[in-house]
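User: Predict the full complex structure for these chains.
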Amino acid sequence: MISYILRRLAATVPVLFTVAVMVFLMLRLTPGDPAAIIAGDNATTQQILDIRTKLGLEQPILQQFFIWLGGLMRGDLGESFFFRKTVFELISERIEPTLSLAFLTIVLAVAVAIPLGVLAAYRQGTWIDRVVMGFSVIGFSVPVFVIGYLLVYIFAIQLGWFPVQGYQRIGNGLGPWFRSLVLPAVTLSVIYIALIARMTRTSVLEVLSEDYIRTARAKGQTEMKVLFQHALKNAAVPIVTVVGIGVALLIGGVVVTESVYSIPGLGRLTVDAVLARDFPVIQAIILAFSFVYVMINLLVDLSYTIFDPRIRY
Amino acid sequence: MKSVKLSRRTVMAGAAAAGALASSTGASAQGSANVLRVVMHSDLRIIDPIWTTAYIVRNYGYMIYDTLFALDAKGEVQPQMVDKYTVSDDKLTYTFTLRDGLMWHDNQPVTSADIIPSIRRWAARDPLGQTVMGFIGSMEAKDAKTFEIKLKEATGLLIFALGKPSSNVPFMMPKRVAETDPNTQITEFIGSGPFVFMRDEWKPGDRAVYTKFAGYKPRSEPASGLAGGKVAKVDRVEWRVITDQQQAVNALQAGEIDLIEAPSHDLLPLLKADRNIKLFNWNVLGNQYTMRFNHTTAPFNNPKIRQAVLYALNQEDFLKATIGDPEYYKVCKAMFVCGSPLETMAGMEDKLESNFAKARQLLQEAGYNREPVVLLHSTDLQVLTNLAPVAKSLLERAGFVVDMQSMDWQTVVARRVKRDPPTQGGWSAMLTSWVAADILNPVMAGFFNASGDRAAFGWPTDPEIETLRARFARANTAAEQKQIAEAIQRRVSEAPTHVHLGQWYSPGAHRGNISGWLEAPAPVFWNMEKGRGA
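Assistant: Here is the predicted structure of the two-chain assembly.
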């Protein structure tokens, strides 16, 4: 197992290097000049050139790449072209809202979707099953921003229960922190609830017809125990896979949700950096996201051994 | 088989508990009474108002810095940090005395020694500053409060330049800061203005925070435009970043914020209908849409073809397509803006009327060879998005071949500085918008600079315009300036450097309990009060 983990960790190095090269080249080859953006409308060609030189953009691409890679090896992600801050500082400031939103979203999605999926499987063919599956279709189909605006209109503007936008740091107290994240987390979790509930239903349906379920019932186990201890555990591998994929997909989801709810997280930082062609920030964020993606895949693979002892690495 | 029961009581209890949690923590998060929560048009990323011309940075500058002179609500330049000044009979020596009690935010006194490097750093970056520096022979601090500027040649621009209202504004900075290389961003953010920038609370993408500067001594005159007494009436101003316009409006209606600098035009009816919200047109001169030509390449290297464009276009079509509501736009053929001292229609009487027959005739006379006009179309800024399609339609009706290329604004910004031929990544024309305060005269308005390589993108070369601009800089009376401005506009109507496509306004929106918002070329937060309720 340990050698497997080490091998997987070692495999992340070429993956991340490839990502680094691709991102670096794509940014340099796509249109957009941060120096022209900074210089403004009145700038002369010389003024723009001066700024490009200051930013190091006049050097050959290969030289720029190796300077950046050298910094990366030393743990230096560089400095933003726009904010007088290091990329590390910017990411540190923005990571808390994104982690908070991702954490609440996944907790909410798993807490709601798995019972719903189990219930739908247990009540297959009844109105409960149809309602859950109907919700699942809607959850897949409606764009995140539509759900966001709808929730804001009902729960923030009409009822006044939650704020329209903004994020309260956890240091300001758990109550305000939680309150600021309820609507964004619900918004973002809808699609994951739909995905996980559907997968749970299918997996549980498969195992409910197994002999060991009939045996468990014959032994007089309660339905709760049969469903959640016997059926769900045996159906867990595909569900965990989908949850893992969901966590990875969250990275894309937070971009829209953070924009709708004005949460100053990594998603918003990504959008702002892309619009401003802030190369060092874009490069660092994409690398960080890639690393998280690889790690999530590793964790999901490792978790299979917990749910299915037959799986060995 | 036992069934799993979901009792209705359990569900109702759960829903009630959720509601209770929401409302218990849900008392509206109103800020303290003396905190002004504002959504500006953009996020504050750069904090050196000399290094960049971005309007958000100019606005930041007005919060924390002060100026020697400032434009009042009537458009007249008034002393601000300056208490009094004298001009010698030969108009070559200006002697300025600073007001008593001027302090930097680190509680050190403002002295003449700070002023001179501040002027130098600003003039190194700003086009108007560069022009004025050409007239300045020397600048000297006479004592802590007195400094002298000696000119090599008289100009009527010096005082106006020192009170220049928009980017780059000549903000005064402490000597050690002002001595920073003009091409390098400053790292210390100390001004002498009415608010202090809270560097530790500045979170790009989230908020920028300012607190009232207790040591600021306002002028005794009432506030007027950017001039007069800058009395900070709130303790704290927070610029909150809400990138989604609809959400900013929602937040304003819910009372989570107090003011939006410039809500988008499509949301104004929603705000008008809310009796808790008021709209206020703080920038009375507004903005001007503009088409810029690339003069270095065909077809717009030919002045007659550029003039054909002037005949083909009309302002109303652009304004209707972008702003829509006539309350917020004005057809105006004056290049130096309607409502300004240099407003004139000279040379424009028969232009901008979509006279396609005349445009076609000019194209024929010019020998237009159907070279495609590569028109850059910005797609992600609402106030600009519809401009290029309107231009394409009108130009094609006049006989131009137009290749409209769509891209995001930042790509337009990068593309417009490229001098490659249009077929190889260059361009022929692009559309943008200016804040009127930036184009009030031919020296400060960058698009009139026709000095070729030393001009802004588009790089027009026109010795006649340059001669007239030089004469304007030397003019000493308002009448003389007006006469030269007319001559410049007449020349531009024959050989356009750019085309002006109408004025438009972007009112701000605020809660009913906010008062004291001043009419000025930039949004300023002194004089603003926050009452109870609303």
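Chain A has a mean pLDDT of 88.
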